[in-house]
Predict the structure.
Amino acid sequence: MTDSCEVEGGYADQDLPFDVPNTVTEVLDDEEKKVLYDRIEKLLKEKDAVLVAHYYVDADLQILAEKTGGYVSDSLDMARFGNECDASTLVVAGVRFMGETAKILNPEKRILMPDLDANCSLDLGCETKAFSKFCDEHSDRTVVVYANTSAGVKARADWMVTSGSAVDVIKHLEAKGEKILWAPDKYLGDYVQQQTGAEMLIWDGACIVHEAFKGTELEEMKKARPDSKVLVHPESPPSVIALADFVGSTTGIINYAKDSDAKEFIVATDRGIFHKMKAAAPGKVFLEAPNAGNSATCQSCSHCPWMAMNNLKNLADCLEKGTNEVFVDEKTSRLAVKSITRLLDFSKDQGHVIYGANDA
Ligand code: 13P
Ligand code: SF4
């Protein structure tokens, strides 16, 4: 068994059941960028569109989203913002499940994405038919799925959760004595199980970016830099989570870095987040957690190859031509909206901070 895979199974020690794109980002000079920025800004106005971006996409897209009255956030806040803004078109710079969630919550809005093939290893590793069979075999359990799943999987679920809400939701269900069927991220499932003591049956899926972080090498790095704090996204393996000073969602990680007295942070999540972390906590130092070592299986080098498929050129193109529209069939949407709305209502009742890290 490899260091990065303490829980049985996972992708670290086997062939992946899907293709991982080899995304190459074209480097643009300042003049090329300015032309695209101006074109996109004009198109957003003309098309009554708003750009909603995830922290992991290219910094240019994050800057543009904020400059044009759009939004940059984690997956939970992206869903909330899309739901609350007035624009008739949302352009979602992120991965497929984020576009689908926006469509399910806003069926009357047009949802565009720079690249519809931008997916997620968790979504790809939890195919609707197989998942549905798994649910049928365990029909006594409450089905809780992570946001990083297809609309079809959400349609089969009782609850959708995000990394920022999973512990609270499972605590709530555990207090009612419910047994949980959890999918698809086994590391997040394992972490939530530890935090809540809930009885959970866990699907065998993983994020290829976070699974690659290495506990042994992180321990060495931490010893060499005793004043730095270790910030970890809970899609990481248990050996990495065990070394964390803070475990939480992308927004949680940014807020921790901003509020902490520490000056240096070792960060175990996609390096796209560094743009926002530097803006939120200027002058502080952010270092990538190690993702290679004796048992190196890195598929991603700390950057999601699907998030990297979003760029200024395909963003401008989808807006101009109205291509890459996201559709979810009516029946799937009608079922999936229940599990998503349940989370949005729950987090509102819990008084969760909305739009946290953008105030940075
Ligand atoms: P967040 O909900 O924390 O933004 O996570 C989404 C994701 O895809 C992490 O890999
Ligand atoms: Fe999916 Fe991992 Fe990419 Fe997040 S970083 S979108 S979980 S593959």
